[in-house]
Amino acid sequence: MTDFYIRPGTSHSVSRDGRSYATAWGPGEDVGLGANDVLYLCGTFPTTFQIKWNGNVSGHFQYRGDAPEEAGQIIVTSGACLTGATTKDYVQYIGLVFSTSTTSDAVTLDTGSSFNDFIDCTFQNCGGRALRFKTTGECHVRGCSFLNNFGFGVYAANSPDLIIENCYFENNGGISTNDDSIGIDDGCINAIVRDCVVVGSNSIDGSGIDIQDSSLSGGKIQVLRCSVTGSEGTNYSATGGVGGPDVVFEGCQSSTGRIGYFVKGKNDVFIYNCNESDSTLNGIKAGGTTVDTGEIQLVVSNCIFETAGGATTIWYVDNGASSSLSINNSCYAGTPLFTRYETATNESFAAWQGAGYDADSVNSDPLLDGNLSPQDGSPCLGVGVKWWGNDARPSGYDGEPMPDTKIDVGSIQTTLDPGHPANL
Description:
With 424 residues, the protein is mostly beta strands. It has one helix spanning 349-354; strands at 3-6, 38-41, 43-45, 49-50, 59-64, 72-76, 82-83, 89-94, 97-100, 107-109, 115-119, 122-124, 131-133, 138-142, 145-147, 154-156, 161-165, 168-170, 182-184, 190-194, 197-199, 207-213, 220-224, 227-229, 234-240, 246-250, 253-255, 259-263, 268-272, 275-277, 282-287, 297-301, 304-306, 312-317, 324-328, 331-332, 338-340, 362-363. A 13-stranded parallel β-sheet has the order 1-2-5-8-11-14-17-20-23-26-29-32-35, with no helix packed on it. The protein has a 13-stranded parallel β-sheet with strand order 3-6-9-12-15-18-21-24-27-30-33-36-38, with no helix packed on it. A ten-stranded parallel β-sheet has the order 10-13-16-19-22-25-28-31-34-37, with no helix packed on it.
């Protein structure tokens, strides 16, 4: 493995072997990397960066913007930030800043790449989509920030294995009416979005985290311990075809969207130990005339709803004889309203329970603190149900593992219940 350096301009050295900051290559030189080599980008690159490599080497490169001598960023006014990285295996991009003022995608990974990994990068003020995956390989995005991008923050299609974790999204979307901070589209079989924060998604018909996967069968798409606040549209949405991947929302928090959770497809959707607050249209919307014709399978357990006054907490209109809605052990604050397909009008919690829904749920103040954690005396303490069977033990939004008994309702797990295993 060899470390190389590249800097804008060519006046910094007469002899440039690329092996130090002082003798860094200039961007116009024929930079070629071998397997396991590292290239440090130092300074601001004002034009599209062309990635090159030696001969037929298959990959295993690192492109880094965190050299101690000078940080690296690619800020262009025309075209994409990167080209040439479409066919190589196992490429990592670490600590770089990307920005393009045109509507081009800042970074696109096309078919042929078997593994791409973005770590601690920043995508900001991009006129189009910030990071787009069209590859058939595995893709990871870790510890990255997506700020004020006019299109998607991350848009992934045909990435069979995708992980987005510990990322921050603020004020993305807006190039069209349905752009999202995170978009997971057809071809993603297994995807995990976990421990991410989304703030202020700008597209009125877009989402904070949007899943539209209908072309493939099997697999699972998981959204774990994420927070979406201030979305102009839907905070979380899931669309899929018959037999498509299961979609799981677990330990998530949703606040101030028009819709907290929008289920508009035919695959199975599970919402476990989540919070919804201040949605101005629906806490959960399932089905409707804008949804693909077909069945909706929705399971909701251990959730807390604090929907804005006058909004419908649960809006459920099935699209087929096999549709099903199961909600249990949840808590509704205020005066919740419910709409079901038999009546198509708002009704009370008592009428909703009388129709056979939510027998084990309550209409009560959840007594949450500012971090959405149940306080002493909350009706949410220790009344949840175990839903994960023999699968790996899940954690709440704050990382607290869930016990097998005395599970708290909502995204935050405490040990306040006297019967909690920690108190025995």
